[in-house]
Specification:
The chain is of the alpha+beta class. Helices cover 53% and strands 21% of the residues. It has 3 helices and 5 strands. It has a 5-stranded mixed sheet with strand order 2-3-1-5-4, covered by helices on one side. The longest helix is centred in the first third of the chain and has 55 residues, at 2-56. The model has no long low-confidence stretch (mean pLDDT 82).
């Protein structure tokens, strides 16, 4: 009988401990569910916001400003190269320029809209003495070669 009483007491004691542990685990589970629902709601809100902003977004025209063309220039001094670069920065359709100077050859990398042949026409208008047809050595997609004197 004494054994039965000890076993019953032990079961009662452990059942309270188990109940408390289960309560803690239930609280953790509820907090995790709340966080999951909040994350899901935030994702849905972002999706809705992106759709709404899509109506007011910037319209893209047919030309892309992601086109890069490298103009390789040989036989040029630094002052002339800087002068050409300044004229190109002001030309229509050119977003940005990046100039590199070297004794063997220099280059200007253009970020522009349109094709390479379109940008050559713009370059000839911006700096006709440098981009005259007699100075053009070659043209390919993304590259124009010029030789000055």
């Amino acid at each position: 009988m004494k054994k039965i009483m000890i076993i019953c007491s032990a079961l009662l004691l452990f059942s309270f401990t188990t109940t408390r542990a289960q309560a803690v685990l239930d609280k953790i589970d509820r907090a995790n569910d709340k966080a999951g629902r909040a994350g899901h709601t935030a994702d849905k809100t972002k999706s809705t916001g992106d759709k709404i902003l899509g109506f007011f977004g910037k319209k893209k025209n047919g030309s892309s400003s992601e086109t890069k063309t490298t103009v390789k220039i040989s036989g040029v001094d630094f002052a002339t190269l800087r002068n050409i670069n300044d004229k190109l920065q002001a030309a229509k359709g050119i977003e940005s320029t990046k100039m590199k100077y070297g004794a063997s050859g220099s280059s200007i990398t253009l970020q522009h809209s349109g094709s390479t042949s379109d940008i050559l026409k713009t370059l000839q208008k911006a700096s006709p003495e440098a981009f005259a047809e007699k100075n053009i050595e070659g043209m390919d997609d993304g590259e124009i070669s010029i030789k000055l004197k």
